[in-house]
Amino acid sequence: MAPSLHPVGPDGFGDLPEPVESTVDWSALPDAVRARMAELGAEAIGALPPVDIPQQLRAVARFTPAKRARLGSGPIIANLRGSVAFRTAVVEWCRKHRPTALDLHGDDPVAVAAAAVLLGDDSAGHYLELVSRRASDATLRAQRDAAVVRADRAETELAKLRGELESVQDAVAKARQEAEVELERLRKRLREQGVKLREAKDEAARAGSEIERVRTEADAALAALAEQRDREHERAEVERGRAARAEADAEIARQAAREARQADEVRLALLVDTLDGAVTGLRRELALGGSGPRPADLVRGATEAQGAVGRVEDPAALERLLALPTVHLVVDGYNVTKTGYPELSLSDQRERLIRQLAALAARTSAEVTLVFDGAGVVAVPTTAPRGVRVLFSDPGVLADDVIRALVTAEPEGRPVVVVTSDRAVADSVRRRGAHPVPSAVLLARLGRS
């Protein structure tokens, strides 16, 4: 604390000097000092006569005491700096009502600095420097404390992240172990299916050999009977009765041979069906489908954009067909869209149907081929949603002909479903073994999704 610059009187404060022109840089006053001076000025103008209040502060004087210091601090400080008369009036008010506010020997550096500035005391610079230094120290301490808190928070977060990393690593190790176990299980099943497939092939080979042997024996028996019949015909007319009996015996033998051959062929068909079932089960179990091009990808006359037979009359029947293994769904594009939403433009019709068929393909795992007439299409899209093959007929080629070619290209026995309301197309694909479905049935199925 700086030594006293003024004598101390009986009241403890001495004769306080009159305020003089200050040499302090008011624009550089610390915020705490400015707030202290604004508080004193706000209290003073509430009690000063209007003649002592500058014109700029008369509106502030009408505020409540709390609002004066908060909202009028700027004008108050400016008038304390620029008006010696106003500053003198504030000092006089403090001497009468707040004498401690002008104590230059107090313990609060902010209050002392504010008093020194108001009085224009030479020690004002010293106290202002002290207040600024303490404010700076407080700011540094606050920054240091904030940095410590952030460091602690960062360490906590790091520990949390390390824990989460360990949990993730444990989960990855567990998943890897489970994947290895599942892979070994699948390998074992593959080996078992391979053994069954080889056994089925061996059984089919044995059945084929047996059928060939029976056929050879039957042919030999027929040849022998024919030779015997020829000899019987050469005999005399008197032995016609024996020849007739021999012919009857030969016919019985031939019938027996045919029945035996038919029975063997039935057994072979059953064995082949068993072998086909085993292969189909193995293909389904291992999700084998082949990644190469399918027959529909090799049909000429169309450009890919990206993507027991009877007429089906309800969505439930269509659902059953789409559940068949390796089913191929061929859709007459514009025939469906112009039935379901003809008010849309052609491009919007195509986009809507493609989105709906992509969702259907994802749910049913069916191969889906969508065929549009290419005539009048300005720009053919280069990509299509996953699971949908989109074809546009080439110039001079009708979409109906492309659909017929797609059905013809499929191997016999594969289930093919053709969606069209065109009777001629439906009749032609039915003759080729496909299942025709009216467009309204597909639209009902898509609308239910």
Structure in words:
The structure is a single chain. By secondary structure, this protein is of the alpha/beta class. The protein has 14 helices and six strands. Strands 1-4-3-2-5-6 form a six-stranded mixed sheet, sandwiched between helices. Keywords: Coiled coil. Residues 144-263 form a coiled coil.
Shape: elongated
Report the radius of gyration as a whole number of Å: 53 Å
Number of strands: 6
Largest sheet: 6 strands, mixed
Quote the average pLDDT: 79
| Protein structure class | alpha/beta
What helical percentage do the residues reach? 55-70%
Q: Strand order, biggest sheet?
A: 1-4-3-2-5-6
Beta-strand residue percentage? 5-15%
- Count up the domains: 3
Poorly predicted runs of 5 or more residues: 1-17, 269-274
Q: N-to-C SSE series?
A: HHHHHHHHEHEHHEEHEHEH
CATH topology of the largest domain: Rossmann fold
Number of helices: 14
Q: So what's the CATH class of the largest domain? A: Alpha Beta
CATH architecture of the largest domain: 3-Layer(aba) Sandwich
Distance between the termini: 87 Å
InterPro entries: YacP-like (IPR010298)
Organism: Actinophytocola xanthii
Keywords: Coiled coil
Protein name: RNA-binding protein
Question: Features of this protein?
Answer:
449 residues, alpha/beta, Rossmann fold, 3 domains, 6-stranded mixed β-sheet, 14 helices, 6 strands, 6% strand
